[in-house]
Amino acid sequence: MGMTDFRSGLVLSVISLVSIGYALSLPQGITNMGVLQPGVFPLFISIGLLIFSIILTIQGLKGKKKQTEGIGQFNMISLLQNKSLLLIAGIFVYFTVVLFLGFLVSTIIAVFISIHFVFKHKLSNSLFITLIISFGTYFIFQSFLNNKLPEGILLTGIIQ
Amino acid sequence: METIQYLVGGLANTFTFQTLLYLIIGVLVGQIVGILPGLGPVTGLALLIPMTFGMDPIPALVMLTGVYYGAMFGGALTSIMFNTPGDAAAVVTTFDGYPLTKQGKAGLAIGTATIGSTLGGLVSAVLIVLLAPLVAKLALAFGPAEYTILIALSFLLIIGLASKSKVKSGISALLGLMLALIGQDPITGTPRYTFGHFELLQGIDFVVVALGLFAIGEIISSLENYKEMKDQKVGKVTKIFPNKQEFKQILGPIRNGTLIGFVVGLLPGAGATISSFLSYSIAKKSSKSPDSFGKGNIEGVAASESANNGSVGGAMVPMLTLGIPGSNSTAVLLGGMMILGLQPGPMFFTNYPEIAWTVIVSMFVGIIILFLMNTLLLRGFIQILRVPYSILAVSIIILAFLGAFSVNRSMFEVFLMGAFGCLGYFLKKNDYPLAPLVLTLVLGGLLEQNWRRALSISDGSYIAFFQSPISITLLVIGLLVIVIPIFKKFSKKQSGGKEINV
Amino acid sequence: MKRKKRLSFVILMVLLCLVISGCSSNANGESAKKSKADFPNKPVTIIVNTNPGSSVDVMARKVASIGEKYLGQPIVVENKPGGDGAVAMGYVLNQKNDGYTLWAGTKTLVGALNTTLSHYKVDSFQPVIRIQDDPFALGVSKDSPFNNLDDLIMFAKENPGKVKIGGFGSTSAHTFAAYEFMDKASIEMTWIPFDAGSDGITNVMGGHIDVAHSNPSTMKQFVESGDIKILSVASEERLTDFPDVGTYKEQGIDFVDSQWRGLFVKGGTPNDIVNVLHDALKKTMEDPEFIEYMKTSNQYDGYMNPEEFQNSIQKEYEATKAIVEKNGIGK
């Protein structure tokens, strides 16, 4: 626990310092009509965050000795083996592909790849699941909820 | 006497074929949009309002109201089963609902939520009948200063809820407040923390953050242990309703939750959210086993669900009697009434007694329909959990995508949600509670606006916060919340008793 | 056996999907490259930048249902909320300027052009018709010492900044109108922005602020129930619903301003098309059913033809610009 807390405390302190700087660039103080300027509340919160981050950093330092759990070992090898990191990357790739291919096509591809190749379901099952999920959600949102889904830059060009 | 006459008339109106049919459509659509993540009553209402065009006002209004409380009802389901809250009010239900699912007790959790929602909804409908004229003015007594204190108090309570680390809980709350700052300053219109991004001017929508933190964050951290998840199935869902002893256990939280829901719901603003958080923290404080809260205690589920459904009745009061919408949903509902040619407001009950009372009666009937529907369909719903987690995870990611996209129909929100997914994963892994972040994000803007409004009104003097009896009462409660734990801690140390978890 | 069933189901699903998507793409793909003479020859869409149920949405839907018989084509209303109207406006501007996509706009446009949407120009949109005119009005609680505009102005002159005036938004049409009024009366009051116009009224009723900046249509019920007094309305003449309430003009302040609602097409749409739309919509406004709706929703006829409408927007735009620059709103 200790090491991660120590590090997050430091990162948060930096963030709050940056935020304090930004808040100070906004109008501060109170006008003679009693209107608080936009910068006051952000400053208040940023200082609060700074105080809490410093406490966290100190707690992290103290806790370092009695390391109870070993989460947060950041090094390159564990990063690459990290499944969650791959998943995050996958999610973002999917979102990006939607921009180009539109919702329906990219969802079909993404669902099929993840179900069949990543989670290793049988081919027929994967096909079935892919169709149900992609077309099901597509129709609920596009037709029933009348919510126009992204068509994608590439495909709109072809249709028109 | 007159009231009874109107009630009977309302009952007769509700039980006509047409009205009943539209009531069922309304609650069904409400339930569905409530279940789908990211969609709430606003979507459901937006869907059905065009349909009401040219309809009779009574069935139309009965249907629209049905969407509103139906959505509150449905919100619990995904919160419990997939840790994916559909709206801010349902966030609290995830605290204990999802751990119950992980223990294979999804049935019990949903059963409890159904009972809590039903009782909360029914009792608050009764309270409308009894109290509407009396309490309508309470909403007026809440000015900017009173709001500021109420919201600050709920922040204090939620930070205090954290059992592991108050510091992390505080950091989580402050991060939420920071996120709430993004966008145009509500008082002067100055852009803040937008760094020139046009999309950020309106601020970050709660739905985007909640879907990211809860749904995506949860999936990332579960798939890390995918091997374990694969074996996990619901097993036989035999138990849905709590047994006698459990029922007794949840009755207290439901009673408190409903009352809190109704009273806080009266106040325009984020009634349902504040009330479910308040109800949860009070249930935890008054429970016999506060330590099990957050690890799967049905009391927590009952407290939150009864409060957010109780708030529906509360929110209807100022809307019908003053024409003041207390939330986005009631604002849309109000618009729906305007389309029908009805103007809610101080003259509504006088001008249209038949319509007003039919709507209230239909709320009873609708809630009972929802209860029956849920009881019948529950077993079917829970079967979804038998689907392998991998497929569920993929579906949830796509639903989250659609939920975030629906906010503004733009991909910007979708990417933002992905980023919050990463943040959620990190916070979860390092034991930061997510609830404070969500609450402060939803209410941070309100806190700031009301604080600044209060100061503007008092020409910058902080006396504003000590002027009314309501403010002083709330301040005293806040003081007690801070002082009592310190005192307890002190006296425990004095007596040499071992403190377990503060 | 089970597998077979499943497969056939899948095939059925796919076929169904193909059929449905095929149909819908046919309907959408039909592009309009027809001569102006036979406009309109397909359904016309009105884009609304709020959720269903807002005043402007209600108006658009009434126009759509009544206007169909005058236009000779179905009129569809589509809601595209988000970004203070930016989503809807952006959508309309991305369509062809063939008159098939209308935008139901309000006075908010003028403010937005000066603040959040300053990348658009006044002539990005071609006005078609102005339909409603909802004049601004000042309301106070029944217990307020102010009984007319003079009382308020006298008090505000002696106590600059002491009067708290509240209403919708920090950069809304209400905000700009309130500042314009202060300017013209040379007084100083404190603007308290709320998230909804009705919040201003409840805060007046609850005694938290002194004056609500709102519209007569919103305050009517509260006037009837005796909770609110209206000090003045920003119309040219007194309103028939409130014969006792004086206008700003007769109380010595040259201030006429309103929350209008009207219909626009994309800038650059040919004049004949604009005229076809205008004529059909004008007939719609004269329809008894529409007049009845205007009455029940407490709205006032704000008819203007495209040219008048264009000029009035240009004037308002410049006035608002001056106010924004003078008071530093949204900066």
Automatic annotation (TrEMBL), chain A:
It holds the Pfam family TctB. This is Tripartite tricarboxylate transporter TctB family protein. Keywords: Membrane, Transmembrane, Transmembrane helix. It comes from the Bacteria. Residues 9-150 form the DUF1468 domain. It comes from Mesobacillus subterraneus. The chain crosses the membrane at residues 39-58, 85-117, 123-141.
Automatic annotation (TrEMBL), chain B:
Keywords: Membrane, Transmembrane, Transmembrane helix. The keyword Membrane applies. Pfam families: TctA (PF01970). The keyword Glycoprotein does not apply. Residues 20-439 form the DUF112 domain. The chain crosses the membrane at residues 20-49, 61-82, 108-135, 147-163, 169-188, 200-220, 259-280, 331-349, 355-377, 384-405, 411-427, 463-487. PANTHER family: TRICARBOXYLIC TRANSPORT PROTEIN. This is Tripartite tricarboxylate transporter permease.
UniProtKB/TrEMBL annotation, chain C:
CDD domains: PBP2_Bug_TTT. InterPro entries: BUG, Bug_dom1. Pfam families: TctC. The keyword Signal applies. Keywords: Signal. Belongs to the UPF0065 (bug) family. This is Tripartite tricarboxylate transporter substrate binding protein. The lineage of its organism: Bacteria, Bacillati, Bacillota, Bacilli, Bacillales.
